[in-house]
From TrEMBL:
Keywords carried by this UniProt record: ATP-binding, DNA damage, DNA repair, DNA-binding, Exonuclease, Helicase, Hydrolase, Isomerase, Nuclease, Nucleotide-binding
PANTHER family linked to this entry: ATP-DEPENDENT DNA HELICASE SRS2 (PTHR11070:SF2), UVRD / RECB / PCRA DNA HELICASE FAMILY MEMBER (PTHR11070)
EC numbers, comma separated: 5.6.2.4
Domain UvrD-like helicase C-terminal residues, every copy: 520-791
Species name: Caldimonas caldifontis
Region (Disordered): 531-553
Start-end of Basic and acidic residues biased regions: 531-544
The keyword Transport appears for this protein: no
Coiled-coil residues: none
PROSITE patterns: UVRD_HELICASE_ATP_BIND, UVRD_HELICASE_CTER
Reaction catalysed by this enzyme: ATP + H2O = ADP + phosphate + H(+); Couples ATP hydrolysis with the unwinding of duplex DNA by translocating in the 3'-5' direction
GO molecular function, a single term: exonuclease activity
Name of the protein described by the UniProt record: DNA 3'-5' helicase
A GO BP annotation: recombinational repair
Length: 1101
């Protein structure tokens, strides 16, 4: 795109100074300068970043020395693709186009003409170099640093160099919780901590509290090590000296000054003529006579104060206000002490839970995202390692570019700033090296990921480092190329008004490149769905519901459904009346729930729609049909799964078919028997006849085929894709197809395809509930949450549910949570506190909670900014009246004030709109192959010995798995391994005998996990002399002289040490481990089929 020209003067700033467009891009795209760019939505942030990469390549910077960091793999792929596309296009462009491209990217016309020839050959030079620009996510870069770290340091951090990345920590929450409960049960002190919490809170709240620690465990650990964890919730005595020396704050009620004041108030009230006053005096006297201090305090407060702490009406007496202040102070002291004790209990229980979680990860050879961040911070922030790591980075990186910086969390910033701050000052600061060119771009107004620990305040810290430490500049761009003038006018009106109310800050009026467009665009509001009067509402509610035939509806559901219908009708008008393509429409909401209603209304009107964001694969009905079919094949006794499979489009059985089958099952003992045994009158229907033919064949195949191959056969034999296409409406066909193909793909991807049987695959699917993204479904309305829509845009955008009920909105304050306050430049959180209810926090936490609420309120406004700026031309908003409104102005109140009323034209009823037609599936004729006489067999079938070796290897891998040795299950594991390799029962018995001989040797048994080891892994990948290999088992063993490595190779032969090739391979594996860890002894041995450990003497010694 062309961007040169004068441009709106108020849109561009350098260090706060207004500048022209050309001067702005001259600095932003110059790789020799370090800059932080704050750019509004649609300003072209990625364009600037990739342009700077192009300029760096043009200046001769090797591609391998350019590091670009972003937050998603999708964004990284987009950057790479855009760079290569530009280079390819410019290589074929004419001279004028290349000159203009360089002028757009900040060069003067004279310099652009001089460099245009170099730009023409840049694509060819990059391809010839064989190098690529490093475009990575933060976590991919951190993983790269971890792989380069010394092994001893990784061991200190509890990480394995080849650990598998765990992207979803919820997979380990169940195992961690169960193991943690066992630990708590065995420890009386921990058991009492848990019991005390359960007496005050529900089990679900305690579980929510503790499991929430897993996602915040790095902050927990840093705060714990720094001492701020324990100090986050002080005791009442630490909070107020007045409570010092008391066993409980309620004892403060017995202080003479307090008691005298309360008795004086009681006498004064008792002497009055009013009945209310005398009644209060009597209640106060009775309260002071109670022996239990806490009960006395509660009774005294009840006598004088309302539930919100104010003095009751019609009570007047000297000293009453002072007495109320005493009671309020003591009540606050009790709240503080309660919060302190709960915080201490949760801290102790949380430490154990995190120990268990870390132990499970180590046993399974896993590392999660937080481990990568923790490792990067340790490598770049530790004095003994930082210099070494920075020297390696200096040799590899001369340009650092970071996109969407407002989404950075404090831990990521700490790691990054440790590296970059080493260059601060003259002559490269402490590093003594020339600093890399730094380009940081983002928009704090679009920071909406605090639930993922993003901290927009790091943006200010980055500005300070780049300006003060690296001599760079801060640039700002408030000019968009996305939004029409009408949309930008609405954005300016809403946010300038919020800023005037002190509800927002840092907003500057935006300008747009599209002010000359034919379509001005604008914002419209659908009619707000109002709640009926209470009497009318109750009159329409049934007094009794048949739960078997009538679904239960939430109280808010009718209003949500009506709002969804209004949105769907407006979309129909746009699509069928105004010619807008469905793919040009987005529907956004803060939560997923309202989008489901819109999807249903659109389906009723036969408008295609899709939700491109991640969702559970098992949420798709068609996927559940296939899983039920697999379950029925491997467990024929599961009648419900069989019934679901028969009723699905795969077979199209009717209810009458199932009733008849159930009646026959009573005679024959099971549904499977009834289906697979034809009755005297034949099959009552074609669906059952078809099922009786296909299901037994698939059940037999399930005994020896892996899940992917079995599914592939079912899809082919059962004509699954075509049958679903015929049954579903046109608007659903594409998403159904994508879900079915996603299930097939997941049969290979789930844990690397390790689930070798359909039964294990079904179990893993249900336990793990994998999430998938279908991407953008062609020609469909896109239904997205605001978070998922960030970075996207559409011609028309609907923002729905803009006035949600407080109980269903993000404004809820009644849940248990963890309060974290971490200032970006500090090494650890200032505060890490467990909070039982955000409405009633401990008095010492009120200031921190006020900051948290302010940040949430700003993030809610940021979400509104993101939603509004997705619209290129039209923004349409909707709402239904809430039962309980939010605190402060809602999105609806802000948007409706600047909106025009939407005018809905009459449309046909949903039932009459484009009813789906029949689908005709065309088939090519079968290929008739000519008869060929059989020839000689060129390759013999794989020998039984080789297959036996594979079965033994698989059995040993499972035997010595991450959950610990399973010696008592050798026979079961051998049968499963034989099944996985299509071997018979005889081979399973032979394999079990070999494995049992191996495990019975004490030395071998210890290496297989019978005794504790420092670390162990199966099938460990290594590269030796450029050749990939795989170590059967690698063990780091404790010995009296320290730790030593064992490189183990399983062989069913009895004398593998006499084969030079096998010995040479084992030596290469030993050499690879020694190179990675030169400090420890590395031993290598064969484990033979006759149960011997044959050590191979190190030839290097």
């Amino acid at each position: 795109m062309r961007i040169s020209g004068p441009g709106p003067q108020a849109a561009y700033r350098i260090d706060g100074r207004l500048v022209g467009r050309d001067e702005f891009y001259a600095q932003a795209c110059d790789p020799r300068r370090s800059v932080v760019v704050e750019a509004c939505a649609g300003a072209g942030k990625t364009w600037m970043l990739v342009s700077r990469i192009l300029r760096a390549l043009l200046d001769g910077v090797p591609a391998r020395e350019i590091l670009a960091i972003t937050f998603t793999k999708k964004a990284a792929a987009e950057m790479r693709g855009r760079l290569m596309e530009w280079l390819g296009d410019l290589a074929l462009a004419d001279e004028g186009a290349r000159v203009q491209a360089l002028v757009d990217r900040g060069l003067s016309p004279e310099d652009a003409r001089a460099r245009a020839g170099d730009l023409a050959g840049l694509y060819e030079r990059l391809l010839a170099s064989g190098e690529q620009v490093e475009v990575r996510t933060f976590h991919a870069w951190f993983a790269q640093l971890m792989r380069a770290a010394p092994l001893q340091w990784l061991e200190r951090l509890g990480l394995a160099p080849e650990a598998q990345l765990l992207e979803d920590t919820s997979e380990l929450q169940g195992p961690a919780w169960r193991e943690w409960l066992d630990r708590v049960h065995a420890d009386p002190a921990l058991r009492e901590d848990l019991a005390a919490l359960m007496r005050e809170h529900s089990g679900s709240r305690v579980r929510e509290w503790l499991l929430g620690l897993i996602d915040k465990r790095v902050e927990f650990a840093l705060a714990d090590a720094a001492g701020s964890l324990a100090a986050s919730v002080p005791s009442a005595a630490q909070w107020r000296p007045a409570f010092a020396g008391l066993d409980h704050p309620a004892q403060r009620l017995r202080h003479p000054a307090v008691t005298d004041t309360l008795r004086a108030v009681a006498r004064s009230l008792g002497a009055q003529d009013k009945g209310t006053a005398r009644k209060a005096a009597q209640a106060l006297e009775e309260a002071l006579s109670l022996e239990d201090d806490a009960a006395a305090l509660a009774a005294a407060r009840s006598a004088l104060l309302t539930t919100n702490g104010s003095v009751r009406k019609h009570l007047e007496a000297p000293g009453l206000e002072e007495a109320a202040a005493w009671l309020d102070e003591i009540q606050q002291g009790m709240a503080q002490e309660t919060a302190h004790r709960e915080h201490q209990r949760l801290t102790r229980l949380g430490r154990v839970l995190l120990e268990v979680y870390e132990a499970i990860k180590r046993r399974r050879g896993l590392a999660d995202m937080a481990d990568l961040e923790r490792c990067a911070l340790a490598l770049l922030g530790n004095d003994s390692l930082a210099a070494w790591m920075q020297e390696r980075l200096d040799a590899r990186v001369s340009q650092v570019l970071i996109d969407e910086f407002q989404d950075t969390n404090p831990l990521q910033w700490q790691a990054l700033s440790h590296w970059l701050s080493s260059y601060a000052g003259a002559s490269g600061g402490a590093s003594g090296q020339r600093p890399p060119g730094v380009f940081i771009v983002g928009d704090p107004k679009q920071s909406i990921y605090r639930f993922r620990r993003a901290e927009p305040r790091v943006f200010e810290a980055a500005k300070d480092l780049v300006v003060r430490g690296l001599g760079g500049s801060v640039l700002a761009c408030d000019h968009t190329r996305r939004n029409a003038a009408g949309v930008i006018d609405a954005v300016n009106a809403v946010f300038l008004a919020a800023q005037a109310e002190a509800a927002y800050s840092g907003f500057r009026a935006h300008t747009t490149e599209r002010h000359d467009d034919v379509v001005r665009g604008g914002i419209w509001a659908l009619p707000r769905v109002e709640r009926p009067e209470r009497g009318a509402r109750e009159a329409g509610e049934p007094g009794w519901r048949d739960s078997l035939s009538q679904p239960r509806h939430e109280a808010q559901e009718p209003w949500r459904a009506q709002e969804a219908r209004l949105v769907a009708d407006a979309i129909v008008q746009l699509v069928r009346g105004d010619g807008v393509a469905p793919a040009d429409i987005q529907v956004l909401a803060r939560r997923r729930a309202p989008l489901a209603g819109v999807a249903q209304a659109l389906r009723e009107r036969h408008i295609p729609c899709a939700s491109p964001e991640d969702h559970a694969l098992l949420d798709a009905l068609e996927v559940r049909d296939l899983v039920a079919l697999l379950d029925a094949l491997v467990s024929p006794g599961h009648a419900l799964s069989l019934a679901q499979a028969l009723r699905s489009p795969i077979f199209d059985a009717t209810d009458e078919d199932l009733v008849g089958l159930a009646q026959r099952a009573r005679e024959l003992g099971s549904w499977w028997a009834a289906l697979t045994h034809e009755g005297p009158g034949g099959w009552p229907s074609e669906p059952l006849r078809r099922a009786a033919r296909l299901l037994p064949a698939w059940a037999e195949a399930a005994r020896h085929l892996p899940p992917h191959d079995l599914l592939d056969r079912i899809y082919a034999d059962g004509d699954v894709l075509a049958r679903y296409a015929r049954r579903v409406p046109p608007e659903l066909r594409e998403s159904v197809r994508l879900h079915l193909e996603a299930l097939l793909a997941w049969s290979l991807e789930l844990d690397g395809g390790r689930y070798a049987s359909p039964h294990q695959f079904v179990h893993a699917l249900r336990r793990r509930s994998p999430r998938v993204s279908l991407g953008s479904v062609p020609d469909a309305v896109q239904l997205l949450t605001v978070h998922a829509a960030k970075g996207l845009e559409a011609r028309v955008v609907f923002v729905i549910d803009t006035d949600p009920d407080r109980r269903s909105s993000a404004d809820r304050h009644d849940s248990a949570t963890v309060l974290v306050d971490w200032v970006a430049d500090e090494a650890h959180p200032r505060c890490f506190a467990f909070v039982a209810s955000e409405r009633n926090v401990a008095p010492s936490l009120e200031a921190a909670m006020a900051i948290e609420r302010a940040e949430r309120a700003r993030e809610a406004m940021n979400g509104l900014y993101v939603a509004m700026t997705r619209a290129r031309e039209r923004l349409i908003v909707s709402a239904s009246a809430p039962h309980n409104g939010q605190n402060g102005p809602s999105w609806w109140s802000r948007l409706s004030a600047v909106s025009e009323a939407w005018v809905q034209r009459q449309e046909a009823s949903p039932a009459a709109q484009a009813a789906p037609g029949a689908v005709e599936v065309w088939r090519l004729p079968s290929l008739q192959r000519p008869a060929v006489s059989p020839g000689p067999v060129l390759a013999p079938e794989r020998g039984a010995g080789a297959r036996l070796g594979e079965v033994v290897h698989r059995c040993l891998e499972w035997l010595a798995g991450p959950e610990g040795p399973a010696f008592e299950r050798i026979d079961e594991l051998a049968r499963a391994a034989a099944e996985a390799h299509s071997a018979d029962d005889a081979m399973a018995r032979a394999a079990a005998q070999i494995v049992r001989r191996m495990a019975s040797d004490p030395t071998i048994g210890a290496l297989l996990g019978a005794e504790p080891v420092a670390w162990a892994g199966n099938e460990v990948p290594v590269v030796t002399d450029g050749r990939p290999g795989r170590i059967d088992r690698l063990v780091l063993q404790h010995t009296a002289d320290g730790e030593q490595w064992w490189v183990l190779d399983y062989k069913i032969e009895t004398h593998p040490d006499t084969d030079p090739a096998l010995v040479a391979q084992l030596e290469r594996y030993r050499h690879a481990i020694r190179r990675a860890d030169p400090q420890r002894l590395v031993r290598a041995a064969f484990i033979t089929g006759d149960g011997r450990l044959i050590e191979v003497i190190d030839s290097a010694k």
